[in-house]
Design a protein that fits this description.
The chain is α/β, with parallel strands linked by helices and 460 residues long. It has 13 helices and 13 strands. The structure holds pyridoxal-5'-phosphate.
């Protein structure tokens, strides 16, 4: 490996941020051409030298006996603290809605009108078509698919379970729990490539033309899990205009509609109106929840769709429940108050979360970029960063990290059946650990990634 000119490693000359001990960068901010050779361009001697160095680094890491966890996208305790008022709300005798209805009792399967009104604008679903339900949107998604399997949708010729095959399109990398729902209910899954603007529409058109068993597609339109992609209106229009089976549905999981990390806030897409304009008013199911607004798993889930679909959903939900937990919904109205209150609340989340996302960028930029060891996304919101290492190295890197006490989301999780054909994608979830622990875990993961990649190159 050659370093030219001096100083050989790192730069402390000025405002340059590449000043840590082991840094090698192509060109630092102060203009030093400090390195480097990308791993793929290294000679065998260089790879061997780097391998010994990384092995020593890795052994030292293992010796530290770390126990760090960056597996799941959970809010941190500091974020949960933002909603602690919920624990004492609604308080006293304050259990009626604006119309004076006693919310302690059964009734109102649509949910609390005030809360539906609060989220109607950000989700771009008219209040009359937006339901406030239980505490988990995944439960609603699961139930919608289960109802379609057992009973069919209004346009279905028969229940989906009586079709020989039902197929869902799964933009990849995507959300593992979506894939779990479809796999669990016996639905075949076909991956579709994601782009920065949403799923690859040409590929979807081709698949739909070839395969009449396709009945659905999973979508996370804003700050997608895990890439952070934001669907453009053009992609949304194309999705609602696709030629597809009459009971084909877009599962529009707007889980991160209000979870922005920068001032670059995307304009919400009115997907239901776009679908109606395209002549497919019943094509879209909208889902969302306050899991990452207030308390994860103890928030409120939402379902929105066309009037026909909402009636279809309510007819099946009526067989499950006499109505949702409206006291919890009231608590949420009292905490968040109105659109401005929701925005201010999310701003407080951003203040806690954004520095952690910055740390991910800084560590990867410093440790991986100089070697061209990976590419990764730079999301402007949501909960994840999607990291692509050299093909064939993700599982090994995650296993090495695990042996060093650093738990990372299992490689393959972002693909249907947990099979990443390239074995390259790793989902990074920076929100839960304190920043110092996050950086420590990421540093260790980078060592594991570099070691896995160097070993693969040496074995080639
Ligand atoms: C895209 C997406 N949808 C849904 C959920 C979970 O939602 P809920 O807690 O409402 O079930 C998550 C959580 O990580 C998510 O990333």
């Amino acid at each position: 490996m050659s370093f030219a000119p001096e100083p050989p490693i790192g730069c402390t000359a000025g405002s340059c941020r590449f000043d840590a001990g082991d840094v090698r960068v192509r060109e630092c901010r102060d203009g030093y051409d400090l390195v480097v050779t990308a791993l793929a361009e290294m000679s065998s001697a260089e790879l061997h030298e780097l391998h010994s160095q990384l092995t020593a680094e890795y052994d030292a890491l293992v010796a530290r006996g770390l126990s760090l966890d960056i597996t799941r996208g959970k809010p941190s305790p500091a974020q949960l603290d933002l909603s602690n008022e919920l624990l004492s709300l609604p308080g006293g005798e304050d259990f009626r809605d604006e119309s004076g209805t006693d919310l302690r009792n059964y009734g109102n399967p649509q949910g609390l009108p005030e809360l539906r009104a609060l989220f109607s604008d950000v989700l771009r679903v008219p209040v009359a078509q937006l339901l406030a339900l239980g505490s988990s949107s995944l439960t609603v998604m699961h139930d919608v698919v289960a109802h379609a399997m057992l009973h069919g949708l209004p346009e279905s010729e028969r229940p989906w379970s009586r079709e020989e095959t039902v197929t869902f399109l799964c933009p990849v990398p995507g959300y593992d729990r979506h894939f779990t729902i479809t796999e669990h209910l016996g639905i075949r899954m076909v991956p579709v490539a994601m782009t920065d603007a949403g799923p690859d529409i040409a590929e979807i058109e081709r698949l739909l033309a070839e395969d009449p068993t396709i009945r659905g597609i999973w979508c996370v339109p804003v700050h997608s899990n895990p890439t952070g992609a934001i669907y453009t209106e053009e992609v949304a229009r194309a999705l609602v205009s696709l030629r597809a089976a009459p009971d084909f549905r877009i599962f529009w999981d707007n889980a991160y509609a209000v979870h922005h990390l920068t001032d670059d806030v995307p304009e919400p897409i009115d997907i239901l109106s776009l679908a109606a304009e395209a002549g497919n008013p019943d094509r879209v199911f909208v889902f969302a929840s306050t899991s990452k607004v207030t308390f994860a798993g103890a928030g409120v889930a939402f379902f929105g769709s066309s009037p026909a679909n909402v009636s279809w959903y309510l007819s099946h939900a009526a067989a499950q429940s006499i109505g949702p937990d409206k006291i919890n919904q009231l608590r949420h109205v009292r905490l968040l108050k109105d659109a401005a209150g929701l925005e201010a609340h999310m701003r407080r989340h951003r203040d806690i979360v954004a520095p952690k996302f910055d740390a991910v960028q800084a560590v990867f930029q410093r440790r991986l970029a100089p070697y061209e060891a990976a590419t990764w996304t730079e999301p402007t919101g949501g909960y994840f960063v999607s990291l692509d290492v050299h093909p064939g190295c993700a599982a090994k890197a995650v296993a090495l990290a695990a042996q060093a006490g650093i738990a990372v989301t299992p490689a393959g999780s972002t693909y249907p059946y947990k099979k990443d054909p390239l074995d390259a994608n790793i989902r990074i979830a920076p929100t839960m650990p304190p920043r110092s622990e996050l950086v420590e875990a990421l540093e260790g993961l980078c060592t594991a990634i570099l070691l896995a990649e160097v070993e693969k190159l040496l074995a080639a």
